[in-house]
Amino acid sequence: MEIPSKYNALSVEKKWYDYWMEHDFFHSVPDDREPYTIVIPPPNVTGILHMGHMLNNTIQDVLIRRARLLGKNACWVPGTDHASIATEAKVVAKLKEQGIDKNDLTRDEFLKHAWDWTEEYGGVILEQLKKLGCSCDWDRTKFTMDDEMSEAVIKVFIELYNKGLIYRGYRMVNWDPEAKTTLSDEEVEYVERQGQLYYLEYNIEGSDEKLTIATTRPETIFGDTAICINPNDERFRHLKGKRAIVPICNRVIPIIEDEYVDIEFGTGCLKVTPAHDENDKVLGDKHKLEVVDIFNEDASLNSYGLHYEGKDRFIVRKAITKELKESGVLVKTESYINKVGTSERTKAVIEPRLSDQWFLKMKDLAKPAIDAVLKNGEVKLFPKKFENTYRHWMENIRDWNISRQLYWGQQIPAYFYGDGKNDFVVAKDLNEAYGLIKDKGITIEKENIRQDTDTLDTWFSSWLWPMSVFDGIRNPENEEIKYYYPTNDLVTGPDILFFWVARMIVAGYEFKGERPFENVYLTGLVRDKQRRKMSKSLGNSPDALKLIEQYGADGVRVGLLLSSAAGNDLLFDEELCDQGKKFANKIWNAFRLIKGWEVDNTINQPTSSKIALEWFESKFQKTIVEIEDNFSKYRLSDALMATYKLIWDDFCGWTLEMIKPAYQQPIDSKTLEKVISIFEDLLKILHPFMPFLSEEIWQYIEKRTPEQALIISKWPEKTALNEPLITEFDFASEVISGIRNIRKQKNIAFKETIDCLVINNEKSNKSFDDVIIKLGNLSSFNYVNDAVDGALTFRVKSNEYFIPMAGSIDVEAELKKLTEELNYTEGFLKSVQKKLSNERFVNNAPEQVVQSERKKEADAKAKIETIKASLASLSV
Fold this sequence. Notes:
four-stranded antiparallel beta sheet; single chain
């Protein structure tokens, strides 16, 4: 079988992915092997592949492919999340293009459009993951809106409600006016923004006196129902029991007292708007104030806004500022920096809003999850530093607002039979609800029962993911949940440590009584070279598929992993992908070199080849230990780098050089057989990182059946390693480098043989002498007791090596050159020693700086000694 001269990644990738799929290598069913399970963090069904997905899923694929090689029953479950807010926004936008308003559709009509959109565009990202080489069990693909997944969500809601953990309450919530839905506290980002502090004058009823308040939101004056002063503030004590008049709307409101007001902030007076500020709501409840909601659901002003009705809040802010100024109410403005709540999804500024919502009590539910990570170590976070973040979130957890004002999602299973807030039952469907209502002694026609129109927060689906993908909620004793759960590793980003990871841990202990996974590997964010987060708006996020097309999937995987230490941000540089591509070409060319050698069964194995292969086997075993240690600590970047160096430096750079036959000469069969065996082991440890290239070469080495495919072969076994042999080679490699340096300096062609003599002060082992002779192209390599005249020298530790140069060089020119080098080095040594003799420098400089100077001194002394030896030998 002829081997192509160049590695063609694109044709190879499709060929082997199709082959793996055809033979069901990704599919898992329970058997008697140890399971290894990971579940994909389900990307949004609206999503397309970006650099974060590339990193996250490459890591997962590395882990799952290695698990297969270790003989485990590897199961990687893929799927997508229905992403309520994002998907509904996409569908609404598409309908708008068609001239259709969502509000003109019934729920069922809208959902039909949503499902049509999902079937047309959803799941694109899963197809893109295949191009990256992701070996998911595609037969198990799940979607959080699948019927069985939705059934699990509803079942959990009912169970939690019946336990008294879910309740309905009229509370201040985070309202996203763009998505027109509530958000949980965790879905709100607080962004620092430059704003203004507006000082407004309120008239005191029946008096010429005015009271100044400061606000960042002048448009909310229409919702003011009180002004609050601190009872200890002597400036305003005389106003107790009086009333103020709200500008523009002229509503008369009470002046109340409460120590909540900060005397030092602003003017010491606080306008109270209970409908639009959480703290104001607390004050309003305490003092039984009227609640005036001035906003529509899109954050435009309603009829309470008078002549501003129907206008957006920010447009009103500009307009009302002008009106207040013209009427003399606005005294002054000041620049003011504050943190503004922003929707994590739409980036809209959040509006606090009072509303009836569903909440899940979290405090008691969180306790087992806190213990699992922070006390008993049942769930481990990598890197460990994220435990502090986890602790802060979980120990300050608030009740979870789980209802959303959307159509796309699981509809809340609450059925109303009357006008009262508590006139409802919770049931899995209308028939069960009808029965429960009848049990209450209430007579009602079934068609008059109304299901709550809200849906559940998307995260309320995905927090069940490790269980629901194995049908562990609906059928808790089924064979698959018992075999695959708990899962092993979870790979995700730290930005959803609370949204998803913590909640999954909570759900695992609540519904299965055990952890959902053992280890959580938290990747960093992918940033550009300027440390900016990658985003479409900045235009700094490369097209993931184009990268694969240009550098090959293996090249991109290597490029991503080489700089992605757990928890640290990855500074992405396209050159890293090019480095990965070059690595693939290096391996391909090494394979072509080996397969290009002719074999002669009659020749004996050279001693140099025998010792070279023995050395590499030990080096391989030492590296395997290092790689496995890195895997155990989730240091995948380090595991890849160890593999990279082993192949590029030790195998391609040294081993192949040591064993390759002379030009146009054959190789012995024993060496060839052994080096191919070594190469196969290298392909095994390379496979998790570069699956396509490794499978291609594996199948080229010899014709193999599907049962012999690399993807299901065995991880190399650990054997005894010869540590002294590794040390001996390290010494020999320095000798070879010394000989080659002299050749380079003196322009001695490699085809020209030279002699080398050594004074063996180190009593070094002679195991690699044949290798030194071969790689140095020496005509002889002899041990002597005394210095050799007329030779150039170099040292390795205390050993002195001599290359006789008689007739090969211009002695006068060499003496001149060495003398100049000696003078320069002696001058440099004096300057270093002068610095080290300065007590102030030695006592005050950082320790590492002093140590660096001492090393310079030692290196200069050694160099001077070598130059003097060379001068002495040439002067004789």
